[in-house]
Structures are given as structure tokens and as C-alpha cells.
């Protein structure tokens, strides 16, 4: 039986105007065992000034490892989202994220197909994605880093589309980062979908959706940046955990919520179920 642990995506401190290290320490203070930082390419003014949690991949990767070791938390993976349909952006970005993850000690990088170019056909998009994922997998395989494909955009909003993306490249480095909230908002049953991908599951975004957001957006959007506190919304977390325990590998539930207060309530609720 797989072990299920609780982590958090550092998006929960996005509106706190604090740096990466502050977010890691806050996650540890709240009782999370794992964190999922967001990485970016180049330099970004707010991050450099200490007002945003994202980490530049031009920084020393040991910055991330040291911050986690100091706070007593582990890395579940990196949020390395980039438009896979746009190889001029995503090919080198993903390869850099994989190398960065390997040196930091993060086992997974998570991404999705991103907004597509306006002028390409569906077949062209899948060929472009195949190129990006094949190049990324060549870098990931020898480093034992996993690439988690997430349901989030125009093709992955449906189980068949996510499966088609997964099958583009035959590589042990490629798996599924399932997002409970995105799959629900797309109009699907997240539990049935999770059951279908559990054998390929490498990471899980634990995103709950409030009744209000469900009423307003379900079936109209392909996803959302963050959800409400786990336990406050429509997702059956007891069942999610039960399915994850039947996966072939240990899984971290990386909470995606919008505030520190929601994060605190999420970890308390999920702990009660574990």
C-alpha cells in the first residue's frame, strides 16, 4: 500500500508579499511535511526584491535545499508549468527545471500543455508536445526525475486528451500529476478519473473547489490557479486518499489554496483523514 503524505504548493503565500524562504518556514510552522516551490527562468523583479515566493533557476539550487533542511520539510516536486505546445519556451525551460530539481533533491517537476499557439492545428500541437517531452525525458531519465503531466488546459481537460499526451513519449520519466480541482471544474468526476490514472500517478495537486465556484464555473473553465481549504469544498478527500493508497508509488497531496489561513485548515483536515 502506498504511503500518502501532505505537502503544499507555495502559491498559498502568493498574496503575502514574502520571499521563498518565508513561505517554506510558514509551511513547516503549519505542519506540512512537504513543499512544492514554483521556479522561473531568468530574473523577476518581485522575487529579487523578496516580495514573491518563486525561485529563479539562475540561483544556486542549494538555496532551495538549504531552506528546506533548515525548516525541516522535504520537496515533493517543483511547479514548472510551461506551455508544452510552444517549444521555443518549454523545451529549455523544462530541461533546466529537471537539472535544477536533480540538484535540489526534488523528485518531480509538474507541467501542462499550456495555452496553445493561435495558428496551429491539434495534430501540430501534439507533434510539438511530443518534441518537447521527448527532449525533456532524455534529460530526466538518467537523473531519475519524473515529469508530472497535469489536467489543466485545452487538451488535458478530458481524460482521453490527458492520456493522449501521456502516450506521446514512451518513457519511465513521464507520469501524471493529477489535479482534483481542475478535473472537477472541467466537468468530470475526479474520483473516477483519478482511479483511471492511479497506476501512472507521480504527484497530486490537492485542490478543493467551493460550492460557489462550482456553481459559477463548472463546465465553463479548464482549471483554476488555487482552490479553497481542503474540506470546505466539493471534493471527497477520504476517497481521494483511499485511491492514492492503491497507487504503485508513494504520493504527496500538495495542497493548492490561496491563503495561509486556508493552508492551516487544509493540513488539519487532511491529517484527520490520514
Pick out its properties.
alpha/beta, TIM Barrel, nine-stranded parallel beta sheet
How would you summarize the topology of this molecule?
Elements: E1 4-9, H1 20-30, E2 34-36, E3 39-40, H2 45-49, E4 55-56, H3 62-71, E5 74-75, E6 78-83, H4 87-104, E7 108-112, H5 122-143, E8 146-149, H6 159-166, E9 174-179, H7 180-185, H8 190-197, E10 201-206, H9 211-217, H10 237-244, E11 251-255, H11 260-273
Parallel strand pairs: 1-2, 1-11, 2-5, 3-4, 6-7, 7-8, 8-9, 9-10, 10-11
Protein architecture, described:
Strand 7, helix 5 and strand 8 (146-149) form a beta-alpha-beta unit. The strands form two sheets. The chain has a nine-stranded parallel β-sheet. It has a two-stranded parallel ribbon with strand order 3-4. It has one domain: TIM Barrel, CATH 3.20.20.150. The protein starts with a strand and ends with a helix. It is 43% helix and 17% strand. The chain is built from eleven helices and eleven strands. The protein is globular, with a radius of gyration of 17 Å. It is of the alpha/beta class and 274 residues long.
The CATH class name reads Alpha Beta
Structural class per helix/strand content?
Answer: alpha/beta
Determine the strand fraction and express it as a percent band. Answer: 15-25%
What is the CA–CA distance across the termini?
13 Å
Quick one: biggest sheet? 9 strands, parallel
CATH architecture: Alpha-Beta Barrel
Query: What's the CATH topology label?
Result: TIM Barrel
N-to-C order of helices and strands: EHEEHEHEEHEHEHEHHEHHEH
Per DSSP, the total helix count is 11
Assembly type: single chain
* Arithmetic mean pLDDT: 97
* Adjacency order of strands in the biggest sheet: 5-2-1-11-10-9-8-7-6
* Low-pLDDT runs: none
Can you identify the CATH superfamily?
Divalent-metal-dependent TIM barrel enzymes
What overall form do the CA principal axes indicate? globular
Helix content: 40-55%
Instruction: Count the beta strands.
Output: 11
Radius of gyration: 17 Å
- Taken together, the total number of domains comes to 1
